[in-house]
Amino acid sequence: MRTEAAKRVELVFSLFDANGNGVIDSGDFDLMTGRVLKAAVASDADAKEAIRSAFGNYWTTLATELDANGDGVITVDEFRPFVLDPKRFGPTVTEFAVALSALGDPDGDGLIERPLFLSLMTAIGFEEPNIHALFDDFGPDAEDRIAVATWAAGIEDYYAPDLAGIPGDLLVGTPAA
To answer: What is the Rg, in whole angstroms, of the alpha carbon atoms belonging to the chain?
Structure first.
């Protein structure tokens, strides 16, 4: 795994540990889902249900694939070596990427405005300066919007263990090449 990917893993673990107790459990996903839905006030019921489902499926996949001792929690040691495995997590990440990026486009024009992007990413737990850096690296248009497909692809890239110099590296403070 590339150094950049290892840094992304550490950040993802800390974000998924939404209650800060040092492990990931289903309650963490409930907390994060609630925060994201609160930020998505303009989204329709279908988009909200899609992100609820994506978060739920993400937890189920993690619990099934990584909870080595069956105790209902994922430790950082269980998480690190496997979470970026595309064979195990590719479909889950794709579902999440599609649902989250669609949530950022409540008017259905295929574009995500910076304020909503910032709100959703802050709800997940990313730091504001890093969110702005990421948005800027995605190449917003003159009206400060990015394409839904750009964000979805960026989310999928974030979970790729062999990629470095990607926009998502900006979320951990690593400059993109």
So the answer is: 15
Cα–Cα distance between 144 and 165 in angstroms, integer?
23
**SS3 state of residue 67:** coil
Strand partners, 111: 147
Structure token pair of residue 121: 């990413």
109: Cβ–Cβ under 8 A, 6 or more apart, which residues?
none
Q: How many residues does the chain have?
A: 177
DSSP assignment of 108-160 equals -SSEEEHHHHHHHHHHHT--HHHHHHHHHHT---TTSEEEHHHHHHHHHHHT-
- Distance in angstroms (rounded) separating the CA atoms of residues 26 and 62: 10
Cross-strand pairs, 146: 112
How far is 106 from 47, CA to CA, in rounded Å? 8
Q: Which residue reads 């400060």 in tokens?
A: 144
Residues 39, 112, 152, 174: is their CA dihedral positive or negative?
Answer: negative
pLDDT along the chain (177 residues), means of 10: 77 94 96 97 96 95 89 90 73 93 96 97 96 97 98 92 88 71
Matching residue, tokens 């997940």: 124
pTM of the complete model: 0.92
